[in-house]
Amino acid sequence: MIRFLALFDALDRTTKTTAKVAALADYFREAPEPDRVWTIALLSGRRPKRAVNSTELRLWAAEAAGIPLWLFEEAYPVVGDLAETISLVLPPATRPEDRPLSDWIGDLVALTGRPAEMRQAAILDAWDRLTGGERFLFNKLITGGFRMGVSQGLMVRALARATGHEETDLAHRLMGDWRPQDTTWDALILSDDPAAAGARPYPFALASPLDDPEALGDPAEWQAEWKWDGIRGQIIRRAGAFALWSRGEELITDRFPEFAPLADLLPEGTVIDGEVLAWDGAAPLPFARLQKRIGRLNVTRALLREAPAHLLAYDLLEEGGTDLRARPLSERRARLRALLAALPADAPIGPSPVIEAADWPALAAIRATARERQAEGLMLKRLSSAYHVGRKRGDWWKWKLDPFTVDCVMLYAQSGSGRRANLFTDFTFAVRDGDQLVPFTKAYSGLTDAEFNEITRWVRRNTLEKFGPVRRVPPELVFEIAFEGIQASARHKSGIALRFPRMVRWRRDKPAEEIDALDGLRDLLNAQS
């Protein structure tokens, strides 16, 4: 664990990309191989399943420190981090021991599902064998709040430097459903066995936001298509395997049984990038229909009837087992059209339409109709572009419609977490419904640190009631909330739910008497429906 702590400290001390890459590359050359695999897993979001909840940790830490629980609870928001608070209050370790990172994680994994007494004894024993910095990292592993300030792309760059492999190859190797507890360094990073790819997806190419397409030059050099509002995914038919992966690297094949026929229809060695949408047979349905299927492991017949799935294909990444990603988009799209044209007309897949326009103003007029088509705007892709890894600025752009906005008033405030634990950053907002104020959404992002500091001071001066960490405040502060969509919701008192709400402006210029009404949101809901 000492070696891993040294890596953590080196990454935490610098904001320079070159220094972080160098530290990671040294670690990937020198650390024990199981530790390397677990470090890759942690940096790519594959954390061990939580074996202990935060309530248990607080109780056990207070008991081990010999302090009342209320004192620990008072210290926690001051420190701002549970793992650090525990590390600070515990007495020094009496049996310090340097064990590999993988061993400590293995111990945590083994505690899953065990009785509370056994888990408590194991955690107390670990705390007594770890020094302050190691104990902090161990606590982070328990709580699942592990952050090292390293992006996936930066980690891949360091792996490339340490191993000599190409970054694109390494990024592909790290995709898919691998588990660090039963994966070796050789199998994950070094093996050249092509069969190891199996149903592994490629890293997704992402687009950058665009404000003014005029800067892109000649429209003839670009392909325009709708930015559909669904689930980005890759259909894979390779090495006898068939899979549907989401952009979040979640295997969702079983959740969309409509695509099962493609296992027989698609040629061996095919990988297609596209958007999963709810489909009425000719056009997309609202995202709210598809949302009912997200997270549902068992898809009922009623859901299949209400929101049948269809894939609108964007790109052909692999054909006949050949990686096409380096070929120009114009060629990949031509091959995609030919492949899809050979499928039966009732296959649950089709090409995402390419939009033709004489110039940028004409394309802007088409973009204005996006919501009528259940789209969020347009995608612009350079016809000569490769299918890159991640977000490579310059070749792919998303030209989205402006979000919806509503002016509302804050009713409740709650403190944040991590570095914002001392600030009130999570707010509940209300709109008018006649003479009443009706809560309708929550938001916690979009303001500056200076604004959050100012609001925190105001909340502390004006708190009317306390409900645990929540403070009720006078309905005086008005905010403009932006959101991407709206849908009916029986779970909310207002009857509506917003999609991706965030604060875009503190309306100091507007009194609470002038906030928007719930009727306006209902009208928008009806229009969207």
TrEMBL record:
Q: What class of enzyme is it?
A: ligase
Q: What is this protein called?
A: DNA ligase (ATP)
EC numbers: 6.5.1.1
List the CDD domains: Adenylation_DNA_ligase_Bac1 (cd07897), OBF_DNA_ligase_Arch_LigB (cd07972)
Q: Where are the transmembrane segments?
A: none
Its recorded reaction(s) are:
ATP + (deoxyribonucleotide)n-3'-hydroxyl + 5'-phospho-(deoxyribonucleotide)m = (deoxyribonucleotide)n+m + AMP + diphosphate
Q: Which residues form the ATP-dependent DNA ligase family profile domain?
A: 302-433
| Gene Ontology molecular function terms on file | ATP binding; DNA binding; DNA ligase (ATP) activity; metal ion binding
InterPro entries reported for this sequence:
ATP-dep_DNA_ligase, ATP_dep_DNA_lig_pp_1105_fam, DNA_ligase_ATP-dep_C, DNA_ligase_ATP-dep_cent, DNA_ligase_ATP-dep_CS, DNA_ligase_ATP-dep_N, DNA_ligase_N_sf, NA-bd_OB-fold
Q: Which GO terms describe its biological process?
A: cell division; DNA recombination; DNA repair; DNA replication
Q: What is the lineage of its organism?
A: Bacteria, Pseudomonadati, Pseudomonadota, Alphaproteobacteria, Rhodobacterales
- Per UniProt, which keywords does this protein have? ATP-binding, Cell cycle, Cell division, DNA damage, DNA recombination, DNA repair, DNA replication, Ligase, Magnesium, Metal-binding, Nucleotide-binding
